[in-house]
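Dear Dr. V.,

Thank you for agreeing to look over these. As mentioned in my earlier message, I'm a first-year student in the group and I'm still getting used to reading structure tokens, so any feedback on how I've presented them would be very welcome. I ran two proteins. I've put each sequence directly above its structure. The first is here:
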Amino acid sequence: MYRVEQLIAGAWVAGGDGRFEVVDPADGTPVSDVPVATAADVDAAVKAARQAAPRWARTPAAERAAALRRAADTLEAEADRLAEAQTAEMGRPVGGARGGVEAGVATLRQYAELGPVHGGRTLAGASDAIDLMAYEPRGVVAAITPWNDAVAVSCGLLGAALVTGNTVIYKPSERTPATGWLLARILAEHLPEGVLSLLTGDGAVGAALTGQEVDVVAHVGSTATGRAIAAACAATGAKALLENGGSDPLIVDAEVDPVWAAQQAATGAFANSGQICVAVERIYVHRSVADRFLGELVQRCADLRVGPGRDPRTELGPLVDRRHREHVHAQVAAAVADGATVLHGGAVPDGPGAFYPPTVLADCADAMAVMREETFGPVAPVMVVDSFDEALSRACSSPYGLAASVLTASMSNAQRAWRELPVGTVKINAVFGGAPGGAAHPRRGSGQGFGYGPELLDELTVTKAVHLEPPGGPHPHW
């Protein structure tokens, strides 16, 4: 069992007001014993970060980048340990968990390269003056991260914040606290005292942290939590940087290969048991390919190997816990009650753990929660449409704006889709993928601000306009 500690003012302490336990979602066995941060812990962490901020901001960017590179090297060496912790805490198949750690390593290295060249710019002013725009760190960043891809997402927010000269209070999800603790230990080994703090606990701890006098709250997680954070930041004046929920559509156009389309849909809907921010959440398939597409999608479900994440043969692990399974199944049951047809899955299995089968629902309607809200589970709800126009119109009708995927053989439809879909990321003929450094603005209920890429460095810095000119009269030393 992992016995998690908190990092406050450079010291690892048990601290907390009581402790809680995280269990393995595959079999219910205890995994992590975790402290719940007190108000005093939160206050002490923020004060330590504030005290360390000026010195870290003055540290040359090349030195900050070197610290990040060393941390990336250590994380790479400890990749198996981090992957095993994530699998134990939230059930992700160990191969996928290791891929998440590898993505985190690459992200730290990317920001180590970008940080020192993230400069300002000079302006064309008077010939005897100097005008420039200079970047400075914002100060103290509260990073509140999710459980579904704990290492990769945390490395993005922490790496960008640290390399730009901010100090950080890191609060990982209460569902993956040991994973966050192990990551924090690796990072802290290479940082000065007070630059990084770790607090653990539930939403109440996160709320206490966002109510403090921090300069940025960076959050990846649910829309409800994101809105609460935005309200808290409005009161304190902190910048809110949010990537929240989504209900990402997949459009399957006419004349595409239905076998290939079903493989893409299955990957998008079932990877990490559907617990991915940009997972396929709702599918609009053209009538001309619908029957073959649905048949192939059901076959993909039947072929998936379901089991505990620690088994290297597993393709579909459990959901993060039984509470989340209740949420997923409630949406499926409500859809069936409203007329949806279960083509595969759709039932809570007997036995231990939080397993849920890959599920395909046909005859879905716009008003159903599975088509309107974020399910975050291995559920593929399908609506058959008569035209690309209809599919695009339905896909655009959502309170979210995170991502969308389009499978089409028509260049004109592809061009129209990426221009009209009101989301931050559009993927044509692939449900996942993209070049390194890609970044996007989530919209509406899905958040605000860049959460990845070089642009995240801009989000975590402030720009100062500077004008220098000679003093009046004689100035021999100018």
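The second protein is here, in the same arrangement:
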Amino acid sequence: MKSNDLFKGKKVLVVGLAKSGEAAARLLHKMGAAVVVNDAKRYDENQQAKELERLGIKVICGHHPLSLLEENLDLVVKNPGIPYSNPIIKEAIHRGLSVVTEIEIASLISEAEIVAITGSNGKTTTTTLIHEMLKTSEREPLIAGNIGTVACEVAEKATSSQVIVLEASSFQLLGTEQFKPKVSVFLNLFDAHLDYHGTKDEYSLAKAKITANQSKDDYLVYNMDDPIVSKIANKSNATLIPFSVKQRLSKGLCIQQDSIYYNGQSIISLNSIVLPGAHNLENILAAIGAALTVGARLQQVRHVLQTFSGVEHRLQFVTEYKDRRFYNDSKATNILASQKALEAFEQPIVLLAGGLDRGNDFDDLIPSLGNVKALITFGETKDKLAKTAEEADVKTIVYADGMQEAVLAAFEKSEAGDVILLSPACASWDQYKTFEERGERFVEAVKSLETTLQS
């Protein structure tokens, strides 16, 4: 960790706990900052706040009093999930206070270089691939962010010989000012989280902050096939490493002669790659570019691509039962992610989809529903998804209340040779705390299917 004096004596307000808020509060307190924590959850129900208070940190729970901004604050650290429309955050910005997320703290204190990955879809897979590709290099990789440990916890212990592989969301990136990764990876940009950002332009601006402070000594690995990502890349000061699955490139990463090429060198044949889904080629190209840039061994890159079959909740193969193959893609929390999942299969699909209603429609999903023979839908968006399925001429539509019921209905509407796919195209928060919980309920329902059918 860089100098302990960076935040010494600074007055810092941490708004919102969860994992990132608690980690930031602990670290800043340890570094000598005068920390006040403010969380909406009542004190008597707030174990995190009680533990921080025992460390000597002042905690204010149950509401967000604007009076907390009247204490000559130097900094506000915001939990990424708290919207900027929150009155205390809105007022802090109005008063000209710096409002950041904890990845900003991580980047300021980290001795290790950071490889940061963002995009609307594929972040977790790409982050995991890069981490695995770096494992036998001289740069010991540490995984952080939305996947793994909170970034500032990792940065506190990281050394200059290591590299932090950081999955970064738009929520986190929007709260950055000096964030400067050694390598940025920008996968794609699609309408997502508009309930948080308001417009696609604002969402795009948040994502673009991943490269905003980079210089020519830094690198931006970017998707040349995405026009918005390319436009952002062309404004970056970083050294550009493009990738494309559609074009042949003399510099950067592309597909030609059924192999992946990097700067004209053949890296691996497509037949050797085990990760399913054409959409994962983009993630693979991005991961290769980033990993090799920070010292991955080519032999390890190839080994990972020949053995890595996916991450949990992202097109995760669960089991085969009665000649049906079950896949858990619970991390598909937007339309683009579900499009990619649906396009990964040639077999007939029974699709389980639905969840939190963010106000969008699902018309963009229609072209990807050609192989869907039945839709099992649930959650707040079930009526919208049913209407979309009707327009796509899906023959069978079933409403389900819970995951057990949905899995049973999916099996009953399927035949031997079918794929049964959970790919919700929606966030999980109407019925589940996280997409992980939703995926776990799906896996449990699948694994108990034989017992259910016998009862």
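From my reading of the second output: The chain is about 35% helix and 20% strand. Residues 280-293 form the longest helix (14 residues). Does that match how you would interpret it?

Kind regards,
E.
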